Amino acid sequence: MPLITPDIQQHVPLADKNWFKTGGAAEYYAAPTTAAEFSNALMFAQQQKLPVTLIGQGANILVSDAGISGLVVRPSLNDIFFSQLDDTNMLATAQAGVDMHELIEQCLAHGALGLEEFSGIPGTVGGSVFINIHYFEFLLSNFLVAATVIHAQTGQILEVNRDWFNFGYNYSTLHEKQHYLIDATFKLKHAADATEVAYARGRRKEIIRHRVARYPNSGTCGSFFRNFFPHEVTLESQGKKLIYVAYYLDKLGVKGALAVGGAGVSYQHANMLVNHGTATSTDLIALARTMQQKVYDAYGIMPQPECRLLGFSEYPLLT
Ligand SMILES: Cc1cc2nc3c(=O)[nH]c(=O)nc-3n(C[C@H](O)[C@H](O)[C@H](O)COP(=O)(O)OP(=O)(O)OC[C@H]3O[C@@H](n4cnc5c(N)ncnc54)[C@H](O)[C@@H]3O)c2cc1C
């Protein structure tokens, strides 16, 4: 791995930097530890006319077997700051590279409550804000009040508020790839006493226990396909549109049954693809396409990915 500049490396394998454990190498790679280093990396890409791809912990990406051309940036800005907002609320500011598990633990240690609802969801703050992580009725955007972002081309740093993100289900302005997240500030309830913190810790434990029993937690990106929007489906149950893509996949008997090469559909969850150890990204794509075709043939609707597909020269799934 020869060094181009002190901060940029070449031909860095990405299989050990994503949860599927598949895919090729980054042509160029940077893991900036400060906003200034982040800006320098973007300027390098600008000068060399390289496309830029951000990654976090790789919990929601599938990297092409050919790798990713251009510069891959994996922010390693890992600080967390707390401050008191008023009598009942605290602010927690976490940089883009902070692991969500670490953030939740630190919040509980400071008596800052709310983010424990996202216990057990892997990823960094950057990746989590990007997709607006969700668990049942909780969305990360319910807590975010401010953030710092960097402009992709100019390296200019901007302070923004929640509205700037235009958050939706699986969506934030960061999808437009004009800006990348440097840090995010969350407004959290300040625990009144130790009992409230103990209750939140108990809830965290219970959510993790529930998740471990229900979902695979290695060799996967979590839900591969996003749920349908109500206007995309016609099937209803008790007056409500059936939007859950896993419902349709489950009906088709794919769970634990459908496989391509080393990739298979989890036996625990019909919408989770798993690398059983020897899968390539090509296997995972072939499996995902088969799942799409099955749902389309049976119900006339085409599942679309929640997982971000990185480094593919052409869109690899069915449209
Ligand atoms: C076992 C498992 C369970 C999961 N369960 C859930 C769940 O319940 N709910 C849920 O919402 N998600 C779930 N996920 C998905 C995943 O945890 C989230 O999407 C997570 O936020 C990904 O974070 P990451 O750091 O790994 O981002 P990555 O997967 O590395 O990247 C995801 C996207 O974020 C972008 N990105 C990363 N950092 C930045 C940045 N600093 N600025 C701009 N863009 C950036 C990347 O370009 C990419 O497009 C699950 C995943 C797994 C593996």
Overall SS class:
alpha+beta
User: What compounds sit in this structure?
Assistant: flavin-adenine dinucleotide
Low-confidence stretches: none
Number of helices: 6
Report the end-to-end length measured between terminal Cα atoms: 37 Å
Give a concise summary:
By secondary structure, the protein is an alpha+beta fold. The chain has 6 helices and 20 strands.
Structural summary, described in words:
With 319 residues, the chain is an alpha+beta fold. It contains 6 helices and 20 strands. The protein folds into 3 domains: 3-73, Uridine Diphospho-n-acetylenolpyruvylglucosamine Reductase, domain 2; 80-214, Uridine Diphospho-n-acetylenolpyruvylglucosamine Reductase, domain 3 (2-Layer Sandwich); 230-310, UDP-N-acetylenolpyruvoylglucosamine reductase, C-terminal domain (Uridine Diphospho-n-acetylenolpyruvylglucosamine Reductase, domain 1, Alpha-Beta Complex), CATH 3.90.78. It has helices at 35-48, 100-109, 125-131, 194-214, 245-251, 281-299; strands at 3-5, 8-13, 25-30, 52-54, 61-63, 68-73, 80-84, 89-95, 112-113, 134-135, 138-139, 144-151, 157-161, 179-190, 236-237, 240-241, 259-260, 263-265, 273-275, 308-310. Bound molecules: flavin-adenine dinucleotide. Flavin-adenine dinucleotide (FAD) binds at residues 19, 54-61, 75, 96, 121-124, 126-128, 130-131, 133-135, 174, 180-181, 215, 217, 220-222, 308. Flavin-adenine dinucleotide is lined by residues 19, 54-61, 75, 96, 121-124, 126-128, 130-131, 133-135, 174, 180-181, 215, 217, 220-222, 308.
